[in-house]
Amino acid sequence: MDDPVVLLGVGGVVGGLVLLVRGFLAYRTGTRIADTSASRIASAAVGEVLVSGVVEPAEVTLVSPLQSVPCVYYRARIEDSDGDSSTTSFREERAVGFRIRDETGELRVFPRGARFDVPTRFEERSGTFGDDPPGLRLRAGAAFGPAAADRDAQVAALLTVQPAGRVGDAGPGDGGTWGGGSWSGLDVGIGSRARRRRYTEARLEPGEIVTVLGRALPFDQLDDPEWADHLEEGDPLLGDPEIAADLAAARAAGRLHDDPAVAWGNAAIPGFGIGRPVREPELHEEAHEPALAGAADAERFARTFEIAPDTLVVAAAPDVPLVVAAGPPEAAAGRHERAFLAGLVGAVIAIASAMWLAIAVGGGNAG
Amino acid sequence: MTPTELAAVFAVALVVLVIAFLVLSTYNAVVALRLRIDKAWANIDVALKQRFDQLPNLVEAVRDLMAWEQDVLTEVTRARAAYSPDAPIPEQAAASAATTSAVRSLFAVVERYPEVRSAANVLALQEEIERLESLIADRRELYNDQVYRHNTRIAQVPAVFLAWLFGWRPRPFFEADAADRVRPTAQVGPAS
């Protein structure tokens, strides 16, 4: 009996079973999507809804770590391999609240607890000599960016032809600032160039079509809007012991205010600093008096920063898991169907491997 | 037990597992579909009830201003009176279609009278009823699509076997029967 034969057989059984379990999970999600009719946003009712439309940013967007693209969700991973072993040196998944728009209206999506079904958009390996792959543009700066100013700006961005390949690469070696403190442990220095590196990134960008299946409920019934508005692996603030200690000290000293106007002053006024304030700010007497926003801008800023209590929003609920899938419902269901078929193939592989293993082991015993 | 027998048991167990998963998933999926249909119907019912409640306000608002258009008002009133939340779905669909038709006739007549059309309360009621009509149309489409998915699912393998076992039947669409599609006509004036 050869060890490689046994290892291969065991590997086939385990790999097949893993594929089968993943197929089962995909089947359940795919069935939910395929069996739920898509509602028009304007006529969506409270309860489980499936809506499909275009992604629009809400207050902020994210900046993807590997290609620095504005998005509302990303999942990025960097793996190092030296031929024999492979280690994950960076892995991050993050989402912020966004809007979904169809021809009848728009709906705010709170991503906390969501399962994102978004295909990989960027998958490259570093070169033989450690050179960066084309298209890699590591994020330099904060992980959060402002939302697009308006639809015209989004249309202009969509129609602008971007240069291929790397544009303004930046990273620790370039003296850039790494955002969010999330890059700790990421060894991207010159000394690590000998290892091959694999980069993968999936993301959901403004303007893309998306299918959302979740629970629609009035905004004021959301347990904690601030908590529900982000999807991250742990709270980035409380995860940092120094920040957590500072927060605890500030809370104990009564320096954390409930009222944003008290805590932030002028910054709590919609439009202040990023457009035009909707009401008169309190300024130093020598400061330049900013022009107030017009009615249309004020309405837009208010819409961006304030959600009416009875506005329907979509969020995860214990009885209705939130699924955000790239593409229209048919495409999303099709991906899950293919994953289920792959799971069935996995079952066949597992059975065939078990048979092969039995013959190999049985033959060895007989011999 | 020999390795070959163990492998055979493993293969049979895996096949049984896949079949059991498919049966359970299909059963749960059809149950969920039926609940979604019930919910979609409940949402239509809410909109029908809202329209039912608003129509008298509209008729009252225009009655004095359109005293010589009693036939159209009578038609709206009669269509509204046909609403019955406990009636079978095809009957409710027929009543809803007749009400929509009567309301459209009323709005068309209102357009001919600027003094009626410009009255603030008429305008507000007209907008509200148009919103409800649009809501009913959207939700009817959603309901019918959900029924289509359910009826298709229980006619396909493997759900067709479960449908036979559990007595699942196709659900009715929200559409009027052919016999009910005749638009009701209002009898105006004294009977001859």
Distance between the termini of chain B: 96 Å
Number of helices of chain A: 7
Given as residue ranges, the uncertain stretches of chain A (5+ residues, pLDDT < 50) are 165-193
What can be said about the biggest beta sheet of chain B?
Answer: none
The secondary-structure class of chain B comes to mainly alpha
N- and C-termini, Cα separation of chain A = 9 Å
CA-atom Rg of chain B in angstroms: 26 Å
Cα-atom Rg of chain A, whole angstroms?
25 Å
Give the helices and strands of chain A as they follow along the chain. Answer: HEEEEEEEEEEHEEHEHHHEEH
Protein architecture, described:
The complex is a heterodimer of chains A (367) and B (192). Chain A has 367 residues and is of the alpha+beta class. Chain A has seven helices and 15 strands. Chain A has helices at residues 3-34, 151-159, 225-228, 241-252, 260-264, 295-305, 329-366; strands at residues 47-57, 60-63, 70-71, 73-81, 86-96, 98-102, 105-109, 115-117, 120-125, 144-146, 196-204, 209-218, 230-232, 312-315, 323-326. Chain A is globular, with a radius of gyration of 25 Å. Chain B has 192 residues and is an all-alpha fold. Chain B is built from six helices and no strands. Classes of the chains: A alpha+beta (367), B mainly alpha (192). The A-B interface holds A 20, 24, 27-28, 31-32, 34-40, 42-43, 45, 47-48, 104, 344, 347, 350-351, 354-355, 357-359, 361-362, 365 and B 2-4, 6-7, 10-11, 14-15, 18, 21, 25, 29, 32-33, 36, 39-40, 43, 46, 134-135, 138-139, 142, 145-146, 149, 153.
Features:
heterodimer, A: 367 residues, alpha+beta, five-stranded mixed barrel, 7 helices, 15 strands, globular, B: 192 residues, mainly alpha, 6 helices
